[in-house]
Task: structure prediction
Amino acid sequence: MPSPAVSETVPDFTAQMTGEQTFTLSDYRGKNLVLYFYPKDNTPGCTTESLRFRDLHPEFLEANTEIFGISRDSLRSHEGFKAKLEMPFELISDPDETLCNLFDVMKTKSMYGKKVRGVERSTFVIDASGTLVKEWRGVKVPGHVDEVLEFAKSID
Result:
């Protein structure tokens, strides 16, 4: 299945998330969603990005926007990361890369001279009707979450 393009409806999906809950995309119709994919729990860039989403969470809620972080880490790892950073939103575990493949965020990267396959830091905004309305790929953390918030505020 090709990944949804901007202005296309995102196919419904279900995944395990923290808080012993199951995420189902269609359950969130009527709200805007931010899905941010990140490489790994407890790493510097991912921690910085997640803290910024945490700190701006009330403003996202005011913009009728829910936030979900997604990585290949286990639910156990996610629960620890979420608790450590006191995140007010859930994290989705994608160990089999179903969502990573749906959104085409798996990339070959070079790390210490070796080729490794990993998650390219990316953020997607889905509007209240389930349409992908914005995507950022190859994200650099500084200033990114503020840009996502400004976009969320602009959605009707």
